[in-house]
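Chapter review. Work through the record for XRE family transcriptional regulator before attempting the end-of-chapter questions.
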Amino acid sequence: MNVAELPIGRRVAHWRVRRRMTQQILADRLGRSKSWVDKVERGVRALDRLSVIREVAEALRVEPAVLLGRSLPLPTEGDTAESQADAIRAALARYDFTQRGHSPGPVTPVAELSRRVGHAWLTYQHAHHPQLLRILPGLLGDAQRTHTAQPTHTVDLLVQVYRVTSSVLVKLGQADIAWLAADRAVAVAADDPLLAAVAAIPLAQSLRAFRGDRMAMAVALAAAHSITTPNPDETPPGELSVLGTLLLEAALAAASRGDPCGVHELTDQAAEVAELVGDGHDHHWTCFGPAAVELARVAAAVDLGDAADAITRHEKITRWDQWPRLPAERRATHLIDAAQAYLQVGDLAAAGRSLVDADRIAPAETRSRPAVRTVIAAAARGGPATAGVARLASILGVT
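Structure tokens for XRE family transcriptional regulator:
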């Protein structure tokens, strides 16, 4: 078979061997573990972020397009997350050395700022990522100026603006800028233990995306411990939601490190917290509850290479009555995880169906993720493609 037609992990292995590198040498060049390289090459761990693909390509001394394959063209500069994030990067790079209580520009009324922050989170949950990227630079500037003028009334709003910024940038493979936004959130929230824990959620997410699984786990656990109380039954549901979300972030970091015992322990702890919160809530924009725990179990199983467990759980989840009521972003992300699990067991038809369903729910989610291109390419080449798979393959340039 032509190298360009191989899955991306096998292309990495091919070029690593061509460059006379061991897995350990490549891992050292990338600042990652040998286990990470091995999982990428076997297709157990998806190479699904453009920024990481570029790092691997640089270490192998090839162009990123070579790893993506001739059927998976590298997006043009105008379509990349880097170009879309330029305005956000510029907004985060502004420093206003102004006395507290005095704004360097127009101040947005707190009620209006609160409405816009809520709109930004709903836009994220509906996976309208391009729209969110367009509104974030202005929202960041207005939130920063308003916080300078009225710091005591707007700290929570500024933390949430930084958090939603970090969250969408992680989705688009912009881990470095995502980490910057999350770090700003932690700095702003430093004097409030609960807000600091809220800010630790995007910090753990961005660190996990930025090659820091161990650090992400440490951050999430430290923040979780800071708000853990002796009597969970008496703890407000909002605080429990933040605690449970941090436990899930720690579990996902454990999965990235190849630690199944840590994953099971942390997800079980999160499940206990979720039972106290229940489903159907969105405290602190976490959407935490029993459903969130099950979605995380699937994502962790995929990362650990336990595709059979991931598929069994996935097929139960999509039969739930509450499945259609989950946010579009959560459902599409889960279906992409399921598609990777199906690919791991060689069920290309099911992998294709899962991605078509994800694209129907949230096109911006599926069409911005390199992992989707890898899976849909395999599904399209694996036999007669359904109309849905053929259409998505055409849209993504997989022909």
